[in-house]
Amino acid sequence: MITYILRHGQTDYSKQYLVNGDPSRAILLNEEGVRSCRQPWSVVPLHKVRTWLASEFPRARQTASLLMGVPIPDLVVDARLNELDYGTFEGGPFREYAAWIETHGGSQCPPGAGESLRDGIRRMLSGVHAVLEYPGPRVLVCHGLLVSVLLWHRDRTRSEPLPLFFPEAPCAEPLSVPDDLLLDWIGALLADLDKGKPQDTEACCGTAILRAGHRSAVATFDAADHSPEKKEPPHA
Asked: What is the CATH number of domain 2-219?
């Protein structure tokens, strides 16, 4: 079976490289984002999709609804697929968050955040793993970082370690992954994340993983969203 994984459509935040890790903010797709979701897809047999999944963020749920053509009463919403918690960087330029990460590393929690970059990726991968429990084919609408990590792993060489920054993922372009291959990717990436993980990150980041880790619910599409998405800094 196959899972189609994609970043939500473009928003004004993502267009300006502003970060939004708070799902309660009603940020929706902009005109380009809406238009991209209404273009016919030849790569995804939408009429055969059995399960639609998305993060809690309105922009992800809106993208799923637009792709389906109608509101989705049985959309599976899983908080493990959420965007990163940016803490005090919320709403600001991604470059400011990136500069902090470059100085402090991906295993440290930014000020006011409940998770580090690395633990956020680990949480997202746990959400992708849970997706495989649902009937396929599946469409999973998530955020730029998760898609960027998966694309990087697909194209990596064996000698490449997990980087601190990843190339920016395109909006609303599906990545098609068979179940057995997706399991291999998740296992390899989790192993990379566990290599040399500092023990002192557990105290600040464990709570966020537990909080988001097991909240999965069926929900009807509900309003807005838009957000940042990560652009690889020129120096990264």
From this structure: 3.40.50.1240
